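User: I'll paste a sequence; please echo it back and then give the predicted structure.

Assistant: Echoing your sequence first, then the prediction.
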Amino acid sequence: MKKNLSFVMAVGWVFSLSLAGLAEAQTVEIGTWAGFRTAAVSFTFDDGPQSDVDIAMPLFKKYGYKATFNIVTNWAGGNINGMLTWSGVKELAAAGHEIASHSDSHPDGTMSANEISSSKGKINQNIQQPYGCVTLAYPNCNTPGDAQVLQNYVVGRICNSGSSIMGKNGPSNWAAVPAMMTGSNGTSDFKGNMQTAVQQGGWVAFLTHGFTTGTNGYANYSPTNASAMEDGLQYAKQNDSKIWVAPMGHVAMYIKERNASTATASTSGSSITVKLTHTIANDVSKYEYPLSLRIKNDNNWTAASGTQGGKAITVFIKDGYIYFDAVPNGGDIVISSGGSSTNPSSSASTQPGSSAAQPASSNSNSGVSVEYKLEMEDYMPGGEGVGYSALNDDSEATGYRSDDAGIVKVGTDGYGVGYTMAGEWYAYSLVIPCEGQFSVVARAATGSANTARFTVSADNVAGEVAVDVPSTPDDWNAYAEVDGSGTLNLVPGDNVIRVHFDDSYINVDWIKLTSSNAQCAYAIPVAKNLRLNSLSGPVQYQVFDMNGHLLKSGTVSAQGSVQNLWSAANRGLSKGTYVLRYGNGASMGSVQVRK
Protein backbone atom coordinates (compact mmCIF):
# COMPACT_ATOMS: atom_id res chain seq x y z
CA MET A 1 0.00 0.00 0.00
CA LYS A 2 1.25 3.50 -0.81
CA LYS A 3 -0.13 6.74 0.53
CA ASN A 4 0.59 10.42 -0.07
CA LEU A 5 -0.43 12.53 2.89
CA SER A 6 -0.36 16.25 3.61
CA PHE A 7 -1.93 17.91 6.64
CA VAL A 8 -1.44 20.42 9.45
CA MET A 9 -0.66 19.38 13.01
CA ALA A 10 -1.20 21.40 16.18
CA VAL A 11 2.55 21.49 16.79
CA GLY A 12 3.25 23.19 13.47
CA TRP A 13 3.19 22.71 9.73
CA VAL A 14 3.99 19.25 8.36
CA PHE A 15 5.00 18.63 4.76
CA SER A 16 3.76 16.18 2.12
CA LEU A 17 5.77 12.95 2.14
CA SER A 18 5.51 9.76 0.11
CA LEU A 19 5.13 6.71 2.34
CA ALA A 20 5.58 3.15 1.19
CA GLY A 21 4.90 0.28 3.58
CA LEU A 22 3.02 -2.90 4.24
CA ALA A 23 -0.66 -3.39 5.10
CA GLU A 24 -0.31 -1.06 8.10
CA ALA A 25 1.45 1.86 6.36
CA GLN A 26 2.68 4.57 8.71
CA THR A 27 3.02 8.31 8.24
CA VAL A 28 6.38 10.05 8.53
CA GLU A 29 6.27 13.74 9.40
CA ILE A 30 9.03 16.36 9.35
CA GLY A 31 8.74 19.03 12.02
CA THR A 32 8.61 22.63 10.90
CA TRP A 33 11.34 23.30 13.45
CA ALA A 34 13.74 21.04 15.36
CA GLY A 35 12.02 18.99 18.04
CA PHE A 36 8.60 19.80 16.51
CA ARG A 37 8.76 23.20 18.16
CA THR A 38 6.56 26.12 17.19
CA ALA A 39 9.12 28.84 16.38
CA ALA A 40 12.83 29.43 15.73
CA VAL A 41 15.08 32.16 17.20
CA SER A 42 18.63 33.13 16.16
CA PHE A 43 20.99 35.50 17.98
CA THR A 44 23.69 37.10 15.80
CA PHE A 45 26.62 39.26 16.90
CA ASP A 46 28.54 41.56 14.53
CA ASP A 47 32.17 42.73 14.29
CA GLY A 48 33.88 40.44 16.85
CA PRO A 49 34.53 42.61 19.95
CA GLN A 50 36.11 41.25 23.11
CA SER A 51 32.70 41.42 24.79
CA ASP A 52 31.59 38.48 22.60
CA VAL A 53 33.88 36.25 24.68
CA ASP A 54 33.68 38.12 27.98
CA ILE A 55 29.89 38.61 28.13
CA ALA A 56 28.03 36.79 25.35
CA MET A 57 29.84 33.44 25.55
CA PRO A 58 29.31 32.90 29.33
CA LEU A 59 25.73 34.09 29.03
CA PHE A 60 24.90 31.61 26.29
CA LYS A 61 26.79 28.85 28.10
CA LYS A 62 24.63 29.50 31.15
CA TYR A 63 21.48 28.64 29.18
CA GLY A 64 23.11 26.10 26.87
CA TYR A 65 22.34 27.96 23.63
CA LYS A 66 24.44 28.65 20.53
CA ALA A 67 24.65 31.88 18.53
CA THR A 68 26.19 33.24 15.31
CA PHE A 69 29.27 35.48 15.56
CA ASN A 70 30.04 37.48 12.42
CA ILE A 71 33.77 38.21 12.17
CA VAL A 72 35.69 40.89 10.24
CA THR A 73 38.69 38.81 9.21
CA ASN A 74 41.25 41.64 8.97
CA TRP A 75 40.33 42.81 12.44
CA ALA A 76 40.69 39.29 13.85
CA GLY A 77 44.17 39.10 12.32
CA GLY A 78 45.25 42.60 13.25
CA ASN A 79 45.62 42.64 17.06
CA ILE A 80 43.30 45.64 17.29
CA ASN A 81 42.55 46.95 20.76
CA GLY A 82 39.12 45.84 21.95
CA MET A 83 38.61 43.31 19.13
CA LEU A 84 39.01 39.53 19.21
CA THR A 85 42.03 37.89 17.63
CA TRP A 86 41.71 34.50 15.95
CA SER A 87 42.48 32.95 19.34
CA GLY A 88 39.30 34.46 20.80
CA VAL A 89 37.28 33.49 17.72
CA LYS A 90 38.48 29.91 18.18
CA GLU A 91 37.16 29.99 21.76
CA LEU A 92 33.71 30.80 20.40
CA ALA A 93 33.94 28.02 17.81
CA ALA A 94 35.15 25.51 20.42
CA ALA A 95 32.04 26.33 22.48
CA GLY A 96 29.86 25.27 19.52
CA HIS A 97 28.90 28.69 18.18
CA GLU A 98 28.65 29.45 14.47
CA ILE A 99 31.47 31.60 13.08
CA ALA A 100 30.30 33.61 10.07
CA SER A 101 31.71 36.31 7.79
CA HIS A 102 31.29 40.05 8.22
CA SER A 103 33.69 40.87 5.33
CA ASP A 104 37.47 41.30 5.36
CA SER A 105 37.65 45.06 5.91
CA HIS A 106 34.21 46.34 7.03
CA PRO A 107 34.17 49.34 4.65
CA ASP A 108 32.03 52.40 5.31
CA GLY A 109 29.75 51.61 2.40
CA THR A 110 29.17 48.32 0.58
CA MET A 111 31.75 45.55 0.90
CA SER A 112 33.61 44.77 -2.33
CA ALA A 113 32.50 41.70 -4.25
CA ASN A 114 35.90 40.05 -3.94
CA GLU A 115 35.51 39.95 -0.14
CA ILE A 116 32.51 37.64 -0.48
CA SER A 117 34.68 34.59 -1.10
CA SER A 118 37.96 35.79 0.41
CA SER A 119 36.46 36.38 3.89
CA LYS A 120 34.88 32.94 3.78
CA GLY A 121 38.21 31.40 2.81
CA LYS A 122 40.03 33.07 5.70
CA ILE A 123 37.45 31.85 8.21
CA ASN A 124 37.58 28.29 6.89
CA GLN A 125 41.38 28.44 7.05
CA ASN A 126 41.42 29.54 10.70
CA ILE A 127 38.26 27.95 12.15
CA GLN A 128 37.10 24.33 12.12
CA GLN A 129 33.32 23.92 12.35
CA PRO A 130 30.95 21.16 11.21
CA TYR A 131 29.46 22.92 8.18
CA GLY A 132 32.17 25.43 7.37
CA CYS A 133 31.40 29.13 6.93
CA VAL A 134 27.86 29.26 5.49
CA THR A 135 26.58 32.67 6.72
CA LEU A 136 27.49 36.22 5.61
CA ALA A 137 26.33 39.37 7.46
CA TYR A 138 26.87 42.50 5.38
CA PRO A 139 28.63 45.54 6.85
CA ASN A 140 26.17 48.44 6.95
CA CYS A 141 23.51 45.94 5.79
CA ASN A 142 24.35 46.52 2.11
CA THR A 143 24.44 43.40 -0.08
CA PRO A 144 27.32 43.34 -2.60
CA GLY A 145 25.30 41.22 -5.03
CA ASP A 146 22.69 38.57 -4.25
CA ALA A 147 23.73 36.05 -6.90
CA GLN A 148 27.39 36.01 -5.93
CA VAL A 149 26.52 35.82 -2.23
CA LEU A 150 24.38 32.71 -2.76
CA GLN A 151 27.16 31.10 -4.78
CA ASN A 152 29.23 31.14 -1.60
CA TYR A 153 26.82 31.06 1.36
CA VAL A 154 23.63 29.39 2.51
CA VAL A 155 22.33 32.68 3.89
CA GLY A 156 23.14 36.41 3.68
CA ARG A 157 21.90 38.69 6.47
CA ILE A 158 20.76 42.29 6.29
CA CYS A 159 19.40 44.50 9.13
CA ASN A 160 16.06 45.83 10.19
CA SER A 161 15.27 47.99 13.19
CA GLY A 162 11.56 47.18 12.93
CA SER A 163 9.69 43.88 12.93
CA SER A 164 11.75 41.16 11.30
CA ILE A 165 9.76 38.01 12.02
CA MET A 166 9.82 35.63 9.08
CA GLY A 167 7.41 32.84 8.22
CA LYS A 168 8.04 29.11 8.46
CA ASN A 169 9.78 29.09 5.05
CA GLY A 170 12.17 31.90 5.88
CA PRO A 171 12.69 35.02 3.75
CA SER A 172 11.65 35.58 0.15
CA ASN A 173 15.33 36.25 -0.65
CA TRP A 174 17.99 34.13 1.08
CA ALA A 175 20.57 36.81 0.33
CA ALA A 176 18.53 39.33 2.35
CA VAL A 177 17.53 37.67 5.63
CA PRO A 178 16.26 40.34 8.06
CA ALA A 179 17.52 40.65 11.62
CA MET A 180 16.10 42.83 14.37
CA MET A 181 18.61 45.38 15.66
CA THR A 182 18.93 45.28 19.46
CA GLY A 183 20.07 47.89 21.95
CA SER A 184 19.77 51.65 22.15
CA ASN A 185 18.71 52.01 18.51
CA GLY A 186 16.63 48.86 18.35
CA THR A 187 14.60 46.49 20.43
CA SER A 188 15.20 45.43 24.01
CA ASP A 189 12.04 43.33 24.03
CA PHE A 190 13.52 39.90 23.31
CA LYS A 191 10.69 38.11 25.12
CA GLY A 192 7.90 39.95 23.29
CA ASN A 193 9.36 39.26 19.86
CA MET A 194 9.84 35.59 20.72
CA GLN A 195 6.20 35.44 21.81
CA THR A 196 5.16 36.90 18.45
CA ALA A 197 7.31 34.37 16.61
CA VAL A 198 5.56 31.57 18.54
CA GLN A 199 2.14 33.02 17.71
CA GLN A 200 3.05 33.17 14.02
CA GLY A 201 4.98 29.89 13.92
CA GLY A 202 7.90 31.77 12.38
CA TRP A 203 11.57 32.68 12.77
CA VAL A 204 13.05 35.81 14.37
CA ALA A 205 16.71 36.84 14.29
CA PHE A 206 18.39 39.41 16.52
CA LEU A 207 21.45 41.54 15.63
CA THR A 208 23.72 42.78 18.43
CA HIS A 209 26.75 45.14 18.39
CA GLY A 210 28.44 44.85 21.78
CA PHE A 211 27.01 45.48 25.22
CA THR A 212 26.42 48.51 27.44
CA THR A 213 29.23 47.18 29.64
CA GLY A 214 32.40 45.39 28.58
CA THR A 215 35.04 45.97 25.90
CA ASN A 216 33.36 46.60 22.54
CA GLY A 217 36.15 48.01 20.36
CA TYR A 218 34.61 48.98 17.01
CA ALA A 219 31.28 47.31 17.90
CA ASN A 220 29.87 50.41 19.60
CA TYR A 221 26.71 51.05 17.57
CA SER A 222 23.48 50.46 19.48
CA PRO A 223 24.98 48.52 22.42
CA THR A 224 22.67 46.05 24.16
CA ASN A 225 21.89 45.60 27.84
CA ALA A 226 23.08 42.10 28.78
CA SER A 227 20.33 41.77 31.39
CA ALA A 228 17.66 42.31 28.73
CA MET A 229 19.22 39.62 26.57
CA GLU A 230 19.41 37.27 29.55
CA ASP A 231 15.70 37.80 30.23
CA GLY A 232 15.06 36.65 26.66
CA LEU A 233 17.28 33.59 27.01
CA GLN A 234 15.62 32.68 30.29
CA TYR A 235 12.20 32.97 28.65
CA ALA A 236 13.35 30.74 25.79
CA LYS A 237 14.64 28.16 28.26
CA GLN A 238 11.36 28.17 30.16
CA ASN A 239 9.53 27.62 26.86
CA ASP A 240 11.94 25.15 25.34
CA SER A 241 9.11 22.94 24.09
CA LYS A 242 8.01 25.81 21.81
CA ILE A 243 11.16 27.78 20.98
CA TRP A 244 14.17 26.45 19.04
CA VAL A 245 17.23 28.65 19.61
CA ALA A 246 19.91 27.97 17.00
CA PRO A 247 22.53 29.79 14.89
CA MET A 248 21.32 31.52 11.74
CA GLY A 249 23.15 29.20 9.34
CA HIS A 250 21.74 26.11 11.05
CA VAL A 251 18.16 27.36 10.90
CA ALA A 252 18.62 28.26 7.22
CA MET A 253 19.93 24.77 6.42
CA TYR A 254 17.04 23.19 8.32
CA ILE A 255 14.43 25.17 6.37
CA LYS A 256 16.00 24.44 2.97
CA GLU A 257 16.44 20.73 3.75
CA ARG A 258 12.95 20.39 5.21
CA ASN A 259 11.35 21.91 2.11
CA ALA A 260 13.39 19.73 -0.26
CA SER A 261 13.35 16.39 1.58
CA THR A 262 11.35 13.27 0.80
CA ALA A 263 10.84 10.42 3.30
CA THR A 264 9.62 6.90 2.59
CA ALA A 265 8.85 4.35 5.31
CA SER A 266 8.46 0.57 5.14
CA THR A 267 7.51 -1.73 8.01
CA SER A 268 8.83 -5.23 8.52
CA GLY A 269 8.04 -7.12 11.71
CA SER A 270 9.18 -5.11 14.71
CA SER A 271 11.23 -2.56 12.77
CA ILE A 272 10.56 0.45 10.54
CA THR A 273 12.98 1.56 7.83
CA VAL A 274 12.90 5.19 6.78
CA LYS A 275 14.71 6.71 3.83
CA LEU A 276 15.26 10.48 4.04
CA THR A 277 16.72 12.18 0.96
CA HIS A 278 17.04 15.45 -0.91
CA THR A 279 18.91 16.63 -4.01
CA ILE A 280 19.93 20.17 -3.00
CA ALA A 281 23.58 19.50 -2.10
CA ASN A 282 25.90 21.87 -3.98
CA ASP A 283 29.31 23.53 -3.77
CA VAL A 284 28.11 25.73 -0.91
CA SER A 285 26.88 22.98 1.42
CA LYS A 286 26.04 19.30 1.52
CA TYR A 287 22.92 20.28 3.51
CA GLU A 288 23.33 17.52 6.08
CA TYR A 289 21.89 19.23 9.13
CA PRO A 290 19.67 16.78 11.11
CA LEU A 291 15.90 17.07 10.66
CA SER A 292 13.31 16.12 13.29
CA LEU A 293 10.86 13.38 12.26
CA ARG A 294 8.10 11.36 13.88
CA ILE A 295 6.00 8.29 13.12
CA LYS A 296 2.69 7.44 14.74
CA ASN A 297 3.13 4.65 17.28
CA ASP A 298 0.37 2.45 15.85
CA ASN A 299 1.72 -0.72 17.48
CA ASN A 300 1.92 0.86 20.95
CA TRP A 301 5.63 0.25 21.44
CA THR A 302 6.74 1.13 24.97
CA ALA A 303 10.38 1.70 23.97
CA ALA A 304 12.36 1.99 20.77
CA SER A 305 15.91 2.40 19.56
CA GLY A 306 17.29 3.51 16.24
CA THR A 307 20.27 3.77 13.91
CA GLN A 308 21.14 5.68 10.78
CA GLY A 309 23.81 4.26 8.56
CA GLY A 310 24.59 1.82 11.37
CA LYS A 311 25.21 4.56 13.99
CA ALA A 312 22.91 5.08 16.96
CA ILE A 313 20.45 7.98 16.89
CA THR A 314 18.19 9.38 19.58
CA VAL A 315 14.66 7.89 19.66
CA PHE A 316 11.79 8.91 21.92
CA ILE A 317 8.17 7.79 22.38
CA LYS A 318 5.64 10.35 23.54
CA ASP A 319 1.92 11.08 23.08
CA GLY A 320 1.41 8.27 20.58
CA TYR A 321 4.41 9.09 18.36
CA ILE A 322 7.96 7.84 17.84
CA TYR A 323 10.33 10.81 17.52
CA PHE A 324 13.85 10.82 16.06
CA ASP A 325 16.35 13.11 14.33
CA ALA A 326 18.15 12.09 11.14
CA VAL A 327 20.44 13.50 8.47
CA PRO A 328 19.13 13.61 4.89
CA ASN A 329 21.17 11.32 2.62
CA GLY A 330 22.81 9.88 5.74
CA GLY A 331 21.79 6.26 5.08
CA ASP A 332 18.85 4.09 6.05
CA ILE A 333 17.13 4.93 9.33
CA VAL A 334 16.05 1.79 11.20
CA ILE A 335 13.70 2.15 14.18
CA SER A 336 13.25 -1.03 16.22
CA SER A 337 10.90 -1.97 19.02
CA GLY A 338 12.52 -2.30 22.43
CA GLY A 339 15.83 -0.89 23.61
CA SER A 340 16.09 2.39 25.46
CA SER A 341 14.30 5.53 24.39
CA THR A 342 15.44 9.05 25.22
CA ASN A 343 13.47 12.25 25.18
CA PRO A 344 13.44 14.74 22.29
CA SER A 345 16.39 17.06 22.14
CA SER A 346 16.59 20.36 23.93
CA SER A 347 16.89 23.52 21.91
CA ALA A 348 20.08 24.01 23.88
CA SER A 349 21.79 21.33 21.82
CA THR A 350 24.20 22.33 19.06
CA GLN A 351 22.16 20.15 16.71
CA PRO A 352 18.61 18.83 17.02
CA GLY A 353 19.98 15.70 18.64
CA SER A 354 21.19 13.28 15.98
CA SER A 355 24.16 11.27 17.17
CA ALA A 356 24.84 9.92 13.68
CA ALA A 357 27.66 12.43 13.33
CA GLN A 358 28.93 11.97 16.90
CA PRO A 359 30.79 8.63 17.11
CA ALA A 360 32.03 7.37 20.43
CA SER A 361 35.65 7.96 21.35
CA SER A 362 38.01 5.50 19.69
CA ASN A 363 39.93 5.32 22.97
CA SER A 364 36.97 4.06 24.98
CA ASN A 365 36.75 0.76 26.79
CA SER A 366 33.51 -1.24 26.73
CA GLY A 367 31.50 -2.98 29.39
CA VAL A 368 32.06 -0.69 32.38
CA SER A 369 29.32 -0.45 35.01
CA VAL A 370 29.18 2.98 36.66
CA GLU A 371 26.80 4.81 38.96
CA TYR A 372 26.72 8.47 39.94
CA LYS A 373 24.63 9.73 42.82
CA LEU A 374 23.62 13.39 43.07
CA GLU A 375 22.39 14.64 46.43
CA MET A 376 19.71 17.21 45.65
CA GLU A 377 20.87 19.66 48.31
CA ASP A 378 24.32 19.88 46.64
CA TYR A 379 23.23 21.97 43.66
CA MET A 380 25.79 24.16 41.90
CA PRO A 381 27.03 27.36 43.55
CA GLY A 382 26.34 30.66 41.85
CA GLY A 383 22.85 31.46 43.12
CA GLU A 384 19.63 32.14 41.25
CA GLY A 385 19.84 31.39 37.53
CA VAL A 386 23.02 29.32 37.85
CA GLY A 387 22.54 26.69 40.56
CA TYR A 388 18.77 26.91 40.72
CA SER A 389 15.69 28.83 39.65
CA ALA A 390 13.17 29.22 42.47
CA LEU A 391 9.69 30.73 42.23
CA ASN A 392 9.23 31.03 45.98
CA ASP A 393 11.49 31.42 49.02
CA ASP A 394 10.08 28.60 51.16
CA SER A 395 12.47 26.19 52.89
CA GLU A 396 12.95 24.60 56.30
CA ALA A 397 15.84 26.95 57.18
CA THR A 398 18.14 24.01 57.76
CA GLY A 399 21.29 26.13 57.66
CA TYR A 400 22.87 23.51 55.40
CA ARG A 401 24.06 26.23 52.99
CA SER A 402 23.79 30.01 52.74
CA ASP A 403 21.74 29.98 49.50
CA ASP A 404 19.08 27.71 51.00
CA ALA A 405 16.79 27.26 47.98
CA GLY A 406 14.03 24.98 49.16
CA ILE A 407 16.23 22.62 51.19
CA VAL A 408 14.30 20.28 53.49
CA LYS A 409 15.30 17.67 56.04
CA VAL A 410 15.07 14.02 55.01
CA GLY A 411 15.02 11.61 57.92
CA THR A 412 17.05 12.53 61.00
CA ASP A 413 20.31 13.67 59.41
CA GLY A 414 19.75 13.95 55.64
CA TYR A 415 18.69 16.72 53.30
CA GLY A 416 16.85 17.11 50.01
CA VAL A 417 14.82 19.75 48.18
CA GLY A 418 11.14 20.53 48.62
CA TYR A 419 8.57 23.29 48.40
CA THR A 420 9.03 22.91 44.65
CA MET A 421 6.86 24.70 42.12
CA ALA A 422 6.23 23.87 38.46
CA GLY A 423 8.88 25.62 36.36
CA GLU A 424 11.64 25.52 38.97
CA TRP A 425 14.95 23.72 38.39
CA TYR A 426 18.21 22.79 40.07
CA ALA A 427 21.60 22.28 38.37
CA TYR A 428 24.39 19.86 39.39
CA SER A 429 28.02 19.44 38.38
CA LEU A 430 29.04 15.96 37.25
CA VAL A 431 32.59 15.53 35.93
CA ILE A 432 33.03 12.00 34.59
CA PRO A 433 35.42 9.99 32.38
CA CYS A 434 32.64 7.96 30.70
CA GLU A 435 29.98 8.23 28.03
CA GLY A 436 26.91 6.11 27.44
CA GLN A 437 23.21 5.75 28.10
CA PHE A 438 22.33 6.21 31.76
CA SER A 439 19.11 5.18 33.47
CA VAL A 440 17.72 7.44 36.18
CA VAL A 441 16.42 6.45 39.62
CA ALA A 442 15.23 9.02 42.15
CA ARG A 443 14.24 8.89 45.79
CA ALA A 444 11.25 11.20 45.95
CA ALA A 445 7.81 11.82 47.46
CA THR A 446 4.73 13.92 46.82
CA GLY A 447 1.76 14.50 49.05
CA SER A 448 -0.29 15.89 46.20
CA ALA A 449 -3.50 14.23 45.17
CA ASN A 450 -2.03 13.10 41.82
CA THR A 451 1.18 11.72 40.41
CA ALA A 452 3.72 14.52 39.92
CA ARG A 453 6.51 14.71 37.34
CA PHE A 454 10.02 16.13 37.11
CA THR A 455 12.58 15.65 34.34
CA VAL A 456 16.33 15.10 34.33
CA SER A 457 18.54 16.38 31.49
CA ALA A 458 22.17 17.27 30.71
CA ASP A 459 22.87 20.73 29.29
CA ASN A 460 25.42 19.61 26.66
CA VAL A 461 23.56 16.63 25.15
CA ALA A 462 20.10 15.98 23.74
CA GLY A 463 17.21 14.36 25.58
CA GLU A 464 15.64 14.18 29.02
CA VAL A 465 14.22 11.52 31.31
CA ALA A 466 10.83 11.92 32.98
CA VAL A 467 10.33 10.72 36.57
CA ASP A 468 6.70 10.28 37.68
CA VAL A 469 6.41 10.32 41.47
CA PRO A 470 3.38 8.40 42.80
CA SER A 471 1.05 10.23 45.15
CA THR A 472 0.89 9.57 48.88
CA PRO A 473 -1.79 12.15 49.76
CA ASP A 474 -0.76 14.72 52.37
CA ASP A 475 2.48 12.85 53.19
CA TRP A 476 5.62 14.49 51.78
CA ASN A 477 7.91 12.19 53.76
CA ALA A 478 6.83 8.88 52.20
CA TYR A 479 9.98 8.66 50.08
CA ALA A 480 10.29 5.83 47.55
CA GLU A 481 12.72 4.95 44.78
CA VAL A 482 11.18 5.75 41.39
CA ASP A 483 12.54 4.70 37.99
CA GLY A 484 12.73 7.29 35.22
CA SER A 485 11.30 6.68 31.75
CA GLY A 486 14.07 6.07 29.17
CA THR A 487 17.76 6.90 29.41
CA LEU A 488 20.01 9.96 29.36
CA ASN A 489 23.10 10.19 27.17
CA LEU A 490 26.17 11.53 29.01
CA VAL A 491 29.60 12.42 27.64
CA PRO A 492 33.07 12.46 29.22
CA GLY A 493 34.13 15.63 30.96
CA ASP A 494 32.10 18.44 32.48
CA ASN A 495 28.34 17.77 32.55
CA VAL A 496 25.67 20.01 34.05
CA ILE A 497 22.71 17.87 35.13
CA ARG A 498 19.45 19.79 35.36
CA VAL A 499 16.40 18.67 37.35
CA HIS A 500 13.30 20.52 36.13
CA PHE A 501 9.95 20.34 37.92
CA ASP A 502 7.00 19.96 35.55
CA ASP A 503 4.58 19.72 38.50
CA SER A 504 4.53 21.33 41.93
CA TYR A 505 5.02 19.93 45.43
CA ILE A 506 7.64 17.22 44.94
CA ASN A 507 10.33 16.40 47.51
CA VAL A 508 13.50 14.78 46.15
CA ASP A 509 16.27 13.26 48.27
CA TRP A 510 18.70 12.18 45.51
CA ILE A 511 18.96 10.92 41.96
CA LYS A 512 21.20 8.15 40.64
CA LEU A 513 22.53 7.86 37.09
CA THR A 514 23.54 4.30 36.19
CA SER A 515 25.01 2.65 33.08
CA SER A 516 25.87 -1.05 32.76
CA ASN A 517 27.88 -0.60 29.56
CA ALA A 518 29.57 2.79 29.65
CA GLN A 519 32.47 3.68 27.37
CA CYS A 520 35.17 5.22 29.54
CA ALA A 521 38.13 7.33 28.52
CA TYR A 522 39.69 10.09 30.63
CA ALA A 523 39.01 13.02 28.33
CA ILE A 524 39.43 15.66 31.07
CA PRO A 525 42.68 17.65 30.57
CA VAL A 526 45.53 17.31 33.06
CA ALA A 527 46.53 20.50 34.85
CA LYS A 528 50.13 21.54 34.33
CA ASN A 529 50.76 25.28 34.08
CA LEU A 530 47.22 26.35 33.20
CA ARG A 531 45.93 29.79 34.12
CA LEU A 532 42.54 30.93 35.34
CA ASN A 533 41.76 33.19 32.40
CA SER A 534 39.72 36.35 33.04
CA LEU A 535 39.03 35.42 36.68
CA SER A 536 39.89 37.53 39.69
CA GLY A 537 39.10 37.58 43.36
CA PRO A 538 37.49 34.60 45.11
CA VAL A 539 37.06 31.51 42.92
CA GLN A 540 34.48 28.77 43.48
CA TYR A 541 35.66 25.17 43.28
CA GLN A 542 34.38 21.61 43.48
CA VAL A 543 36.48 18.45 43.86
CA PHE A 544 35.31 15.09 42.43
CA ASP A 545 36.86 11.66 42.58
CA MET A 546 37.46 9.87 39.27
CA ASN A 547 34.06 8.21 39.54
CA GLY A 548 32.33 11.59 39.45
CA HIS A 549 31.41 11.80 43.14
CA LEU A 550 31.50 15.29 44.68
CA LEU A 551 33.92 15.28 47.62
CA LYS A 552 34.10 18.91 48.66
CA SER A 553 33.35 22.44 47.47
CA GLY A 554 34.07 25.97 48.57
CA THR A 555 35.48 29.37 47.64
CA VAL A 556 39.15 30.43 47.87
CA SER A 557 41.48 33.14 46.59
CA ALA A 558 43.31 31.38 43.74
CA GLN A 559 45.75 34.18 42.83
CA GLY A 560 45.47 33.32 39.13
CA SER A 561 46.69 29.73 38.82
CA VAL A 562 45.21 26.25 39.02
CA GLN A 563 48.14 25.17 41.19
CA ASN A 564 47.37 27.76 43.87
CA LEU A 565 43.68 26.92 43.79
CA TRP A 566 44.40 23.20 44.09
CA SER A 567 46.80 23.76 47.00
CA ALA A 568 44.00 25.39 48.94
CA ALA A 569 41.27 22.97 47.79
CA ASN A 570 43.04 19.64 48.42
CA ARG A 571 43.44 19.96 52.18
CA GLY A 572 42.13 16.86 53.91
CA LEU A 573 42.19 14.68 50.78
CA SER A 574 44.27 11.51 50.58
CA LYS A 575 46.85 11.00 47.83
CA GLY A 576 45.39 10.22 44.42
CA THR A 577 43.92 11.68 41.21
CA TYR A 578 40.93 14.02 41.27
CA VAL A 579 38.92 16.30 39.02
CA LEU A 580 38.93 19.98 39.97
CA ARG A 581 36.09 22.15 38.68
CA TYR A 582 36.73 25.86 39.08
CA GLY A 583 35.44 29.29 38.06
CA ASN A 584 32.71 31.75 38.89
CA GLY A 585 28.99 31.39 38.12
CA ALA A 586 28.47 30.02 34.62
CA SER A 587 32.19 30.30 33.65
CA MET A 588 33.59 27.01 34.89
CA GLY A 589 36.42 24.73 33.73
CA SER A 590 37.63 21.27 34.73
CA VAL A 591 41.05 19.63 34.92
CA GLN A 592 42.60 16.45 36.32
CA VAL A 593 44.86 17.07 39.32
CA ARG A 594 46.99 14.90 41.61
CA LYS A 595 47.85 15.12 45.28
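Residues 543 and 580 are 5 Å apart (CA to CA). Residues 1-23, 349-367, 530-535 have pLDDT under 50 and may be disordered.
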